[in-house]
Amino acid sequence: MEKNTAHNDGHSMSNSVIGFALSLILTILAFGAVMWGVLPHDMIMPVVVILGVLQLIAQLYFFLHLGLAPEHRENTVYLILTVMLIVVIVGLSLWVMHNANVNMMPMHMSTSDAMLHQ
C-alpha cells in the first residue's frame, strides 16, 4: 500500500492553516492601510508593496513548498528559471518595441514637415 506523498515533505495541514492565516492577516493589513487612513498618504504605496511581497513569500513557502531545504531546492530552481525566462522575454520585447517606436517615428520632424517630404 502506497503512502500519501502529499504531506511527506515536512508540510502538514497545520502549516497550510498557518499559511492561510498569515495570508489573510497580510491582506487585511494591506486593505486597512488603504481604507482606514492610519498611514500618511505617501506611505500607503510602500506599505502595500511590502505587505504584498511578504504575502508572496508566505504563499511560495506554505503552499508551493518552495524553500532552501534539500527537498525543496528543485522546485525553487524551477521557479527561479521561470522568473528569469519571463523577465528576459518581457524585457527584450519592451526593448524592441521601444526601439521600434523611437526609430520609426522621428520626433524631431513635425507632421507638416513629414507631409512635405513625401
UniProtKB/TrEMBL annotation:
Annotated Pfam families: COX4_pro
Single annotated GO MF: proton transmembrane transporter activity
UniProt xrefs under InterPro entries: Cyt_c_oxidase_su4_prok, Cyt_o_ubiqinol_oxidase_su4, Cytochrome_c_oxidase_bac_sub4
One Gene Ontology term, aspect cellular component: cytochrome o ubiquinol oxidase complex
Transmembrane portions of the chain: 17-38, 44-64, 76-97
Highest taxon in the source lineage: Bacteria
Subunit structure: Heterooctamer of two A chains, two B chains, two C chains and two D chains.
Family (UniProt): Belongs to the cytochrome c oxidase bacterial subunit 4 family.
Protein name: Cytochrome bo(3) ubiquinol oxidase subunit 4
Annotated source species: Acetobacter indonesiensis
